[in-house]
Design a protein that fits this description.
Number of strands: 8
Order of helices and strands: HHHEEEHEHEHEHHHHHEHEHH
CATH class of one domain: Alpha Beta
Distance between the termini: 127 Å
CATH superfamily of one domain: Alpha/Beta hydrolase fold, catalytic domain
Helix content: 40-55%
Structural class: alpha/beta
Largest sheet: 8 strands, mixed
CATH topology of one domain: Rossmann fold
CATH architecture of one domain: 3-Layer(aba) Sandwich
Strand order of the largest sheet: 1-2-4-3-5-6-7-8
Number of helices: 14
Length: about 325
Amino acid sequence: MAEEYTNPDQLNPTPAAAEPTPWRKRLRVGRILRWGICLVLLLWVLANWYSDIPVHNLALRYGYPDSRFMELDNMTVHYRITGKGEPIVLLHDANSSLHTWAEWTDSLSRKYQVISLDLPGFGLTGPHPQGSYSTFMYVNFFDQFVQKLNLRRFHLAGNGMGAQIAWFYATEHPLKLRKLILLDAPGFETKSTTALEILARTPVINRTLWQITPKPFIRLMLEEVYADDKKVNSALVQRHFDLLRRPGNRKAFTDRAQVSENRPPVDLIEQIRTPTLILWGAEDTRLSPEFAYEFHGKIRRALLKIYQNTGHWPQEENGGTSATDVQAFLEGRF
């Protein structure tokens, strides 16, 4: 009888490599995804990490031939005085600068002394030394500013945040004002908090906003305040982007976000007796034109005009017409 031959390799076969179980596959894919997300986030941070621009460089680039600088309250305040005649002072909105009044300045300076300034936390002026950004601080700062210029009586115009400062100033110092112009003024709207403001209030995260400044976000902000996105050109975006990188301005943004209640009581608006012109953009998505009628109803004998195809900054988007209307108002022809 033939003997059966047994192959030793068959008795002890080499074990085949074990196939990874489904959960191990998922773990491996998940790890790759996490590392991929971290890498993309790191690249995004590096691409949008910008250092400050020295004030001197910004002044050379964005200063005007008639730019002036005043030492006030431990700040070097940037301002302009253009033309001769009765003075009219112009206050810009948040996330803006005195450049917003360029067209008004060119037009009104033919008959008036036009004064514009970079408010604390913006433009070339830079941050407030105590990081204070309430409306009450701004009104006190502005009163010091006009005293230092020895302005006894003047016209006052403001847009957005600047308009809020203007109407509050009118209630505090009515004898100093000849006429008041309010463009898209805050006051009656319900206080709300944006996602960006929440980030600006979050410890640790808010410090990253002092260095991370995506330029596309600047464009989105400008497209929000303009009715016509085509007017948001690269030069406009670049100027806002550069001035935000003035040392201290990005920190000023997070400091302003910490102010939980920075506006005066709206009931004060009824106390305004200064002749007032209210201007508003019909396409303002930040402050609805319905609030224009609130101001018109509360301020005695106020005049009102709403511009079609115009957003939150009428002095920029409809500069020529609005400047002409303001001159007519100042001369009693509106």
